Amino acid sequence: MRHRMNRGSEGRPKPAAPVAINQIYEIEIEGLTHEGEGVGRADGYTLFVSGALPGERVRARVTSVKKSYGHAELVEIVRRSEERVTPPCLIYEECGGCQLQHLDYEAQLRWKRKLVIDNLQRIGKLEVASEPESDDSQSGVIVHPTIGMAQPWRYRNKAVVPIGEREGGLVGGFYAQGSHRIVDMDACLIQDAHNDELIRIVKRIAGELGIPAYRSETHEGLLRHVIVRVGVRSREMMLVLVTNGERLPRTAELVERIREAARVSQPEYELKSICLNVNTKRTSLIFGDETRVLWGSETIEDRIGDIRFAISARSFYQVNPVQTEVLYRKALDYAGLTGSETVIDAYCGIGTISLFLAQQAKRVYGVEIVPEAVEDAKRNAELNGITNAEFAVGLAEELLPRWRAAGIMADVIVVDPPRKGCDRALLDTIIAMRPERVVYVSCNPSTLARDLRVLEDGGFRTVEVQPVDMFPHSGHVECVILMVRKGA
Ligand code: SAH
What we know:
This protein is an alpha/beta fold and 488 residues long. It has helices spanning 92-95, 105-122, 193-208, 251-265, 321-335, 352-358, 371-383, 396-405, 424-433, 445-457, and strands spanning 5-7, 13-15, 24-32, 37-42, 45-50, 57-65, 69-79, 142-143, 158-166, 169-175, 182-184, 223-230, 236-243, 270-278, 290-296, 299-304, 307-312, 342-346, 363-368, 389-393, 412-415, 437-442, 460-468, 478-485. Helix 2 runs parallel beside helix 10 and helix 3 runs antiparallel to helix 4 (251-265). The structure holds S-adenosyl-L-homocysteine.
């Protein structure tokens, strides 16, 4: 590749990008990022084109230029992908909450599998079997087709909505791209319709009672966010109001009217908990430290499979209950339990996977950094009469080495880390503990691939990978992986 060279102020040569801002280029789109941007090349220089799909030829205007890549906006589709569909959501482009609605759902599932394979090969340096449903004689990691949803809409059980004000009432929905302006939204096609309805009720009634919305620019006003959660199996609902202040005016009236309106509009669902969370900081974090119950119970219940879960306002709970069950069943299947195993569930949250495993293991130890989640996990064990699961608060990378030193051995270790993946110290401890199996649940294929490489080098073999579509129409990719100890 040849580049013109500029001299920077320090005298070091800097290659100049071969494209110019505002210039229009006609390019072939070859890839797709998880933000839904098409990837193509102009003179060997990488351009990310929002809205363009692989296989398309497009004309795009360059909007920003960096050293090794630039961004461009779609001007015209010269050759259209057969996988392109019309997004059903009318505010799809403005909102930015979904990234793949313009791609046919089956094609989304294929793309997610391919993204996993690319990461395993490129970052994990793993050999991937060419045919997904192969027999054991084939070498390489088996990456199964992504398990999608039969109904990939209205799947989210939780909504988090920023609140703003406009003449005559409150608005709530999403931030217009790249700004703090709140665009009102009455319905979101990936959200449970009962959540949408409860949010509409809260906006209307809080507006009528004159409760002021928070303004981030001036740090004034009161109502920052409305959060609603529904237990799709239990049909219980929770409402959390996040406020910039301890006191909410006309609380009793607000609570009473919201309860009444919810009862009338969706009588088959029960609004069981209304909480207030106080966040007086200038921050983009949603929750503050203090949560109190305004009315009803501190938790709502839901079920995954046969297990009941109590969920409190701030605990992590998977947002797609239908696919969560698919994911956890796969994790349980990969754990290969017979009833005699000791299992460690690092990153256990409120004990969801732990309690699933406990039904078929001798003993399960869960670790989790958030103390409230561990409280929930213990309560959930009790709620289900499960006595062979123990939970501890702490960093997985600190507690596991201590457990190992105390003589605890594990037959199976399950990890389900956040996006940044596992801490190196945890991976080293897993290697030293020599479990027969490692089950890795991942929401980020690139950190997954990095961690699998460490475990491979430490004596484990990656056997199979099952992508599960937890977030249809978004670029997020979730998968569950089985590793076995070499020679076990
Ligand atoms: N397995 C659970 C939670 C997965 S989300 C479920 O499926 O519901 C990841 C969890 O890891 C979060 O609850 C987060 O609080 C916790 N966490 C993050 N870093 C951690 C660390 N270093 N040690 C232990 N837990 C951690």
